[in-house]
Write a structure and sequence with these properties.
A two-stranded antiparallel sheet has the order 1-2. The relative contact order is 0.08. The chain is built from nine helices and two strands. It has helices at 2-10, 12-23, 29-51, 74-98, 103-120, 124-127, 137-155, 166-191, 196-201, and strands at 56-61, 66-70. It starts with a helix and ends with a helix. Helix 1 packs antiparallel against helix 3 (29-51). The longest helix has 26 residues, at 166-191. The protein is mainly α and 202 residues long.
Length: 202
């Protein structure tokens, strides 16, 4: 189950890179070579993941539950992830330097900041090396999704035009706040004791 779950995680670097190549409209041959080669590397990682213990060597027990343990190939995956992320930042920065103003510039600007928050979620990989702290990457992913959603609504990212009634915006905003709040409340009550009196107030 741990290894099966990691199949999806293995695809994160390449699918992000593929999205940005498409989003930025890059059609150069060298970029396509990097893209298809990266898919090949990803499938190699997945083959090692499912057929051996070289990538993920099972799991370990921590104070909040089970978590995957990194194997010999895991650092190489992190290097691969880092190289693709740096490539994405380079492509975004190059595009931003060419767009000084206008709707496209603001789309690129907000996507750039959203990506920075998403990169911070990579702190969860540290836990794979049995550092005993709770993985908080989901917080950065929520921030990433919030900025990305704002860019879609306010700046028509990817030419998506959403028309909402004010009541719909209010309900969606409320839900986006309450769901993380209930998750945090559950975590605190289960692992750190009963703080319901002041936690409910917060």
């Amino acid at each position: 189950l741990v290894k099966t779950g990691w199949v999806g995680i293995s695809f994160i670097p390449i699918t992000f890179y593929h999205f940005f190549v498409y989003f930025l409209g890059i059609k150069k041959l060298n970029e396509k070579i990097i893209l298809y080669s990266s898919y090949g590397i990803t499938f190699i990682f997945i083959c090692f993941l499912l057929s051996s213990n070289l990538f993920i060597t099972g799991y370990f027990d921590s104070f909040w539950g089970h978590y995957p343990r990194a194997g010999f190939l895991h650092p190489f995956f992190l290097i691969f992830l880092t190289l693709l992320t740096l490539r994405i930042f380079y492509l975004l920065y190059r595009e931003m330097s060419q767009e000084k103003k206008g709707a496209r510039f603001y789309q690129l600007k907000f996507v750039f900041w959203a990506l920075i928050f998403y990169v911070l979620s990579a702190t969860d990989f540290i836990v794979n090396y049995e550092f005993n702290f709770y993985p908080i990457g989901f917080i950065f992913i929520i921030l990433f999704l919030g900025i990305f959603s704002y860019t879609i609504v306010a700046h028509r990212l990817m030419d998506i035009k959403l028309v909402f009634r004010k009541s719909t915006v209010f309900v969606l905003s409320l839900v986006s706040i309450l769901i993380p709040a209930f998750i945090l409340k559950y975590f605190f009550e289960r692992y750190l004791g009963d703080f319901s009196a002041w936690l409910d107030l917060v």
